[in-house]
Structure formats: C-alpha cells, structure tokens
Design a protein that fits this description.
The chain has about 675 residues and is mainly α. It folds into 4 domains: about 160 residues, no CATH class; about 140 residues, Zincin-like (2-Layer Sandwich); about 130 residues, no CATH class; about 90 residues, no CATH class. The chain contains 25 helices and 4 strands. It has a 4-stranded mixed beta sheet. Helix 15 crosses helix 17.
C-alpha cells in the first residue's frame, strides 16, 4: 500500500472511528434515559399498594436527555481535542512528563537520539521533529504525537534513550516515524478526545456522589441528597460503561496500527534484528515498557509497547511481535536491568556510564561520532548549464521515486546518514541554535556576484540581529564551497532551532529572507524552494496559517488551469529550449488518465512563481489520488530528458512538501522505465 493509499486508509479509519463513537454515544444516551425511567418505575411500584401502569416512553424527557448527553460528551471530546491541538504533539509529550531535548545538547545519549531522529527525518523527507525524553520513566517505550507532519514530536523514555543500542534505537524511532507517515497520530489524538468525552459522564456522576454525601450529613439535607445520590450512581454506571466500550474500540484500532508500524519499520531499516532486540529487552527488563505517568492510561494506544496494565490490550502480545520479526524466537526473555544495559553500551559504543557526568558524555560522544565515515552525496551536484549535452547524464526511475513518497526504504536511511555525515561539523553546530540556524539560511541565499552580495550584506547589517550578522561575516570566505546536494539537508537540520524563535523574530526572519531573494530582482529555483519549505514547515508553528484545507477536488478536471500552470513551469525550468519544454509538457500531460482533462501549455509570461504558489494552494484541496496523479505528471515532465539536477530535485521536493507528500532524498540513479 503506497503513501496515497495510506492517506485514504487513514481517512477511512477516522470515519470508522466516528461511526463507532456515534454508536457508543447513542448507547450512552439510551442508558442515561432508560436507567432513570426504570429506577422511577421501581420506586413508584414500591410506594404504591397497587402496581401502576408502566410507561417507558416520555418524549420530552428523551429529547432533554439527548441534548444534555450530547452537550456533555461532544463538548468534553471537542474541548480535549482543542486543548491538545493548541500545543500539537508537544502538549501530549508534556502531559506525559516529557522534556524537550535542545538541538544544542552535548549529552551523549541525547545527542545520539537526536542524530537518529535527524537521519530518520531526512530519510523520510519530513522536517526534523522536536525530540522529547521522559526522564523519570525507566521502562523502554516511545511514542509519536501530533496532528500532522508539521507539529509532530517524537518522545522516548529514559530507559529507551540510555538502554538501547543505536540499531535498536533506530528500529524504535523508525516504528514511530511510520506512525507519522501513516497519519496515525491524528487518529490517536481523536481517540483521546472521544474517550475523554465518554469519561466525563462518569466523572459527572462522581461529582454528584460527593456532593450528595456533603449535603446528606444533615437531617434536612438527607431527603434532598437521595435524588442526587441516585443520579450520581446512574451516571457513574452509564459513564464507565461507555468508557468500557470506548476502550474496546481503542484497543481494536491500536493493535492493527501497531502491527503495520512494525512492518513499516523493518521495511525502512531492513534490520528486523534491531527492532526485535528492543522488544526482547522490554520482555527481560523488570520495568518492561511500563509508563508511570498518571496520564498514561488515556495515551496507552500511542506507545511503542504496552505502557499500562489493562484488560484491553492496545498492542499485540510481545512474544508474537518478536516472532513476526524473528520466527525462530523461543519465547524466553533474558533478564536485564538498566545497569547491565548501560555497561553493555559502554563496551560496544563507548557510551559514558551515568556517574561519569556531562564531561564524560561529551568526550565519548566525539569519539563515537568520528567512527561514522563521511560518504559523498549521492545526488548529482553540478547545476546544468544551457546547451550542455545530456547524452551521458544519469537516469532515474520516476516510478520508484513516486512509490517512495511516504514509504522510505533502507537506501533512503543510508543516503540520509551519508548526507548528514558529509555536512561539516561547524555547519551542524550552527544549525543547533536559533542564531546559527538563521545565519545558515541567510548564507544559503547569498549571491556570488559582488554587486549583489554587497547589497545583501548591507541589508543584513541593518535588518539582521548583530550576532547573526557577525557570524555570517566570518563565514563569507566559505561562500560557494558547500556542496549543493547538502542544501536541503542543512535546511532540514535548521527547522528544529527555528521553531524556538519568538513570533516577532520569525516575522523579521522571513522578511529578511524575502529581501535577500529579491536583491537581484529575480527568483531562481532554489530560492523559491527554500521559501516554500520554510513557510510550509514553520508558518503552522507560529499560527500563520488558517484552517487545514478540506478536500474539495476528487478529479483533476476541476484543476485544469492549475495543472497547466504547474506542468508549464516545470517544463520551462527543467529544460533549456522552448521545443524541449513543449515536449516535456506533453510527456507530463500524457500521464493524466482522464481523457476529458485537456491541459494547455501556458504562455511564458504567465509562468510566474506567484501563479505556481496559487496553483499549489488550490491543489492542497485535492484528494490523495489527485495529488498522486499530479506528482506523477510532474516527474514525467521534469525527467523527460532523463536528467535531473540538484535545483530540480529541490523544486520537486518543495512542490511535494506543499502538498504534504514527504519525498525521501534522491538516491543512486537507476535506469528509467
């Protein structure tokens, strides 16, 4: 199942959840109505000498019960979801006792964890998410939370961070990234909200029960307390019955998604042994995967392993998960504890023991980091010059690239690791702080032409912060030395630090970026791609975007002008002559399956970046399958000459990112179909 089918599956799962929740609410309404009616009937029967006629149906009472129950349940669910939405995945992580790991950390274990997350993010084509650790949790567990790619976070327990080897940690993080890519996170948060709504009925009953006890202590209050006591008991029974069935729904959905995440993690890393070893350590550790936080129950379906003991199993049995990965597993777990795990990591990875302190962590981390051999970037880095021969250019398989969207493989993880290792250490240090991250973005936009560069530096001197400008001045001798293939990975690494800007700093930063781009009165492919990536990933953080777009287009026929603009822009930007561009446009047009979709190549003066932005905004309102068809046509158009440059890769990734379709890094070229 490809990324676009997974998106459709996620929408169907949300619809199914809504239907199941509606059934649970309907059952709750019936219980809230019939239990008081039955109680009233038995009460009247006990009082009367002659049994009265029993009447079940009271329309006005039923309407009142429906209104109040819906208001309480739906109101509670929506308020909980809104509360979690305000902080995105970070609010869930903090609710569970998480602490964010700063990009600039020098702790060995925190740095190692961030490195793995960065590799997985770049391999997946998503921005590097904030990373949290739950410092008081000694069990081995993790989770991903958020409503989408742009507000996702990855969190692990202290036991996971300090007790797993790098391969095991990579398997766990790959499992969590599959939840991000499969859009499980939004479903998980909706489950928290729906269950909270059902639970409020029972909590309301407990409040009434306590209140009736308070007023029932006096002789006069005893009579008034009786109805409150009865109402409280009824609401508790109804509320916790609804909560029972809600948990049943949650467990059923969660088990299926966890099995899929295990399979996706193995596909991602091609290392089932790493994931299996992490699960074995859970089985042998006295703490297992237990989460101590009092809020763990409502988030139990989000964890890598079973975080709470419950009659509703949100995960497949541990032995079964391991046997899926390692069919020969005997089912016996070797007992381990955190001390032995720390000692093992000290031996195999040079990890500091807990008592060595921060100084030891930093020193040992440097030794380990040096063992990763840098590899050359696997993307062709030279920009194409007009008229250059293409006969010996590398060829790429567009179908394989399209299939890799949202489904990263081992080769993408290896490429990401090689790209990160190729980034100079100084650049990685700058990317880990808000000042350095802004400097790097400005640096990437500097022009090599002296007159333009002088104008840009003068602009930065007046508009950028002093520390940022001074750091940039010191970096000027390196202008033009950065491998173009590393530009997108560098941008990806700056995103976590840029999230720490204040709203005013972010506004100033984006204004400076725009001014640097406009310094030469024209926008090239990289400048357009950089602005789109920054705005798409950071605007939601600073609440610069409106409501999430809804799907309004299920066929490309409703988007013909926009599709024509996109293919025309790509044809002209990726090919040298108008004749080649026209041929490339028709190659992309032929991918569109609908025979009634008549696309026309737009005139050169109508192919502007502004029109492309407008077209992409409208395409964001299309269905997953329309986006897939559009990206397939875009690839066919770009690769019509069997060649693709770094700037063209950047443009395609910017287009795909705008449509929430994460593209893994370009890998070693292969023959084109």
């Amino acid at each position: 199942m490809d990324f676009f089918a997974q998106q459709d599956q996620a929408r169907r799962s949300t619809l199914l959840l809504t239907v199941q929740f509606s059934i649970a609410v309907a059952g709750t309404i019936l219980l809230v109505y019939f239990l008081p009616v039955a109680f009233w009937h038995f009460y009247k029967t006990a009082q009367a000498t002659v049994p009265p006629d029993f009447q079940w149906w009271y329309p006005h009472l039923f309407i009142g019960v429906c209104g109040v129950t819906l208001m309480v349940v739906l109101g509670g669910a929506l308020l909980k979801i809104a509360e979690l939405r305000r902080g995105g995945g970070s609010s869930v992580a903090m609710m569970l006792g998480g602490r964010e790991i700063l990009p600039s950390t020098d702790d060995f274990f925190e740095r190692r964890l961030r490195n793995v997350v960065e590799e997985m993010a770049i391999a997946s084509g998503v921005p590097v998410p904030p990373v949290y650790v739950m410092p008081h949790e000694k069990g081995i567990n993790a989770f991903a939370a958020g409503f989408g790619i742009n507000d996702a976070v990855v969190a692990v327990t202290y036991g996971t961070m300090t007790g797993l080897s790098r391969d095991e940690l990579q398997g766990v993080i790959a499992h969590e990234f599959s939840h991000i890519l499969n859009k499980d996170m939004a479903l998980n948060i909706q489950l928290i909200g729906f269950l909270h709504g059902l639970l409020i009925i029972g909590l309301t009953g407990r409040v009434l029960l306590h209140f009736s006890g308070d007023i029932g202590r006096s002789r006069d209050g005893a009579r008034a307390a009786a109805p409150l006591l009865a109402a409280g008991l009824i609401l508790i029974a109804v509320g916790f019955t609804g909560y029972f069935f809600g948990n049943l729904i949650k467990a059923s959905i969660s088990r299926h998604r966890e099995r899929l995440a295990d399979a996706s993690a193995v596909q991602f890393t091609r290392n089932p042994d790493g994931l299996a070893a992490a699960l074995k350590k859970i089985g042998g550790l006295v703490h297992g995967s237990h989460i101590q936080s009092p809020q763990a129950g409502q988030a139990s379906h989000m964890f890598f392993g079973s975080g709470v003991r419950s009659m509703f199993s949100t995960h497949p049995p541990l032995r079964q998960r391991i046997q899926w990965l390692e069919p020969g597993f005997s089912g016996t777990f070797e007992p381990v504890n955190l001390e032995t795990l720390h000692q093992h990591l000290h031996t195999i990875e040079g990890a500091p023991l807990p008592e060595e302190g921060i100084a030891g962590l930093t020193e040992n981390y440097s030794c380990v980091a040096q063992t990763i051999p840098p590899s050359p970037a696997q993307v062709r880095t030279a920009k194409r010059k007009p008229g250059k021969s293409r006969k010996n250019s590398p060829k790429l398989n567009g179908h394989q690239l399209l299939e890799s969207i949202g489904r990263p493989m081992e080769k993408h993880a290896e490429t990401a690791k090689a790209l990160i290792a190729s980034i100079p250490e100084t650049i990685r240090e700058h990317a880990s702080s808000p000042y350095g991250a802004r400097m790097l973005i400005y640096f990437l936009l500097l022009d090599s032409r002296k007159e333009i560069l002088d104008a840009q530096m003068e602009l930065l001197k007046t508009q950028a912060e002093t520390e940022v400008f001074q750091t940039l001045e010191r970096a000027l001798p390196n202008l033009g030395k950065l491998d173009p293939a590393l530009r997108l990975p560098v941008i990806d690494l700056t995103i976590p630090s840029l999230r720490f800007l204040s709203e005013a700093q972010y506004d100033t930063f984006m204004q400076v970026v725009k001014a640097l781009v406009e310094a030469d009165q024209q926008t090239d492919v990289f400048e357009f791609a950089l602005q789109r990536v920054l705005k798409h990933h950071l605007d939601p953080v600073f609440e610069k975007v409106g409501k999430k777009p809804v799907v309004n287009y299920y066929a490309i026929r409703g988007l013909l002008p926009e599709a024509s603009v996109l293919l025309s822009m790509l044809a002209r930007k990726c090919h040298d002559t108008e004749e080649e561009a026209a041929s490339a446009f028709h190659a992309g047009k032929n991918i569109i399956q609908d025979p009634r979709a008549e696309l026309q190549m737009t005139e050169p003066e109508q192919c502007t970046w502004k029109q492309l932005e407008t077209a992409l905004t409208k395409f964001n309102e299309s269905s997953s399958q329309v986006k897939k068809e559009l990206l397939a046509a875009a690839l066919a158009c770009m690769m019509h000459d069997h060649e693709i440059s770094v700037s063209e890769v950047e443009l395609f990734r910017a287009v795909a990112a705008t449509l929430d379709c994460p593209v893994p890094p370009w890998v070693t070229p292969v023959s084109m179909n």
